[in-house]
């Protein structure tokens, strides 16, 4: 029987010594062995390493110098490097890569004494919206294994939803934390770009990628972000700003808060289930005294083409390093150096990664750079300006996280464009570099979770975490579990 602790509950049990870190880790490892085969959420486990970290956490607790997170287990998306652990980005290209160093955000959590459970499945190189492009097979939604978990952080969302980890790390490039969090009925936060170091996080699109916490509750996400956020001189995009307590507004009442409803997001394109979840969220906010006002984000429809031009261009550049020379997959048969490059890349990358590399190389090529790449950069600024204009009228924006509940496995595979359109409500946030959080707000007619987003202005993480916490204090959608 899987454990059902939230991160906060696990922390309290450990600090009160009602359970040891080794006992807790063992519970989770047993649950993983029993249930992971049906959802394929974990792709790399190392029980000996996990139990060694748990034993060290117990010693730290016994000595009386424990952090609130000491001994709490956590899972990491297979994009975060950690010394001695395979970090494959769910790709054949890196199937044999064992990280020689540790990502800063992982080290921050290790410094607090958190215990590594394993690496979670994902779309290959974080490219996908359904977690079906993984070299290790698709992730299945714990609420209905015939449906996707969402992507690209689908494995992290699925293991938290299935109670195979109290929390996990994901990365969000165009909605890759928030969309799977919505599909799996958990809480996921994409922070402001730059407050969490990207060092040691394998790059897809460097100006978009951002690590974030995924857990059952907003309170859990706030506790994790307190330890995750830090300045890192090894990351040129890391922001040097004072440390912040992201739990500071958890108990802030919502009375008088202005919630913006973008008219471009509240359309008939949303399924009836999503419209019902949005109505649930609005009623919940109004019942606590929040004021709902209409706002406009006029560049919404253009955010998808702008994103896929820019992100694919950055992917083309970032993935050029995988050539079979120093590390990663190398083809066995080739006649010369050019063939070694081309055969290694053809064999090592999946079809979606190849598609985005080709798009990115095209838009960066001579004659098309001005026509596509520069125009997309200009549009990116317009999207950011739209949000800032909206935030002059409201404190937080409420929006859908996805236009539907989780699709069936294979439903989006035949039409890449339709798969791209499923990110319509998440991509603009990444273009602007804003923080946003997905939290559960209902169930579909088929019993699948539906999430909504709370979007804040720059560095408004504490505000949106506080609003989400207040919503969760007065609802139980986040407590729903797979049968």
């Amino acid at each position: 029987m899987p454990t059902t602790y939230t991160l906060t509950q696990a922390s309290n049990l450990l600090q009160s010594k009602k359970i040891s870190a080794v006992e807790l880790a063992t519970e989770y490892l047993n649950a993983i062995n029993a249930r992971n085969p049906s959802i394929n959420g974990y792709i790399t486990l190392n029980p000996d390493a996990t139990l060694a970290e748990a034993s060290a956490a117990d010693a730290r607790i016994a000595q009386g110098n424990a952090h609130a997170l000491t001994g709490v287990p956590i899972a990491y998306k297979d994009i975060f490097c950690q010394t001695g652990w395979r970090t494959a980005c769910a790709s054949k290209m890196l199937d044999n890569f064992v990280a020689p160093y540790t990502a800063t955000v992982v080290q921050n959590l290790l410094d607090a004494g958190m215990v590594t459970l394993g690496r979670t499945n994902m779309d290959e190189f974080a490219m996908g919206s359904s977690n079906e492009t993984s070299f290790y097979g698709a992730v299945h939604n714990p609420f209905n294994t015939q449906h996707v978990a969402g992507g690209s952080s689908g494995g992290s969302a699925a293991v938290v939803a299935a109670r195979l980890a109290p929390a996990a790390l994901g990365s969000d490039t165009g909605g890759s934390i928030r969309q799977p969090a919505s599909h799996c009925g958990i809480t996921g936060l994409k922070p402001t770009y730059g407050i969490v170091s990207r060092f040691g996080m394998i790059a897809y699109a460097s100006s978009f990628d951002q690590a974030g916490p995924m857990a059952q509750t907003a309170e859990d996400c706030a506790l994790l972000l307190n330890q995750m956020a830090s300045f890192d001189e090894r990351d040129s995009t890391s922001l040097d700003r004072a440390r912040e307590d992201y739990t500071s507004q958890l108990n802030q009442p919502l009375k008088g808060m202005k919630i913006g409803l973008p008219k471009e997001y509240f359309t008939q394109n949303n399924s009836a289930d999503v419209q019902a979840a949005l109505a649930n969220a609005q009623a919940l906010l109004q019942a606590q005294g929040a004021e709902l006002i209409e706002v406009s984000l006029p560049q919404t429809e253009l955010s998808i083409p702008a994103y896929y031009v820019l992100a694919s261009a950055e992917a083309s550049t970032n993935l050029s390093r995988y050539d079979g020379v120093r590390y990663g997959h190398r083809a066995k048969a080739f006649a010369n150096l050019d063939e070694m490059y081309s055969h290694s890349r053809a064999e090592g990358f999946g079809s979606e990664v190849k598609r985005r590399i080709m798009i990115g190389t095209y838009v960066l090529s001579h004659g098309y750079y001005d026509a596509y790449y520069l125009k997309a950069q200009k549009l990116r600024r317009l999207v950011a300006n739209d949000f800032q204009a909206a935030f002059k009228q409201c404190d937080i924006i409420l929006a859908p996280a996805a236009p539907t509940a989780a699709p069936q496995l294979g439903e989006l595979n035949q039409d890449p464009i339709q798969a791209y359109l499923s990110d319509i409500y998440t991509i603009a946030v990444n273009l602007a570099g804003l923080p946003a959080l997905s939290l559960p707000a209902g169930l579909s007619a088929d019993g699948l979770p539906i999430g909504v987003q709370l979007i804040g202005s720059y560095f408004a993480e504490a505000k949106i975490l506080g609003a989400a916490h207040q919503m969760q204090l007065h609802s139980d959608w986040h407590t729903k579990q797979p049968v």
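The mean pLDDT is 96. The longest strand covers residues 436-443.
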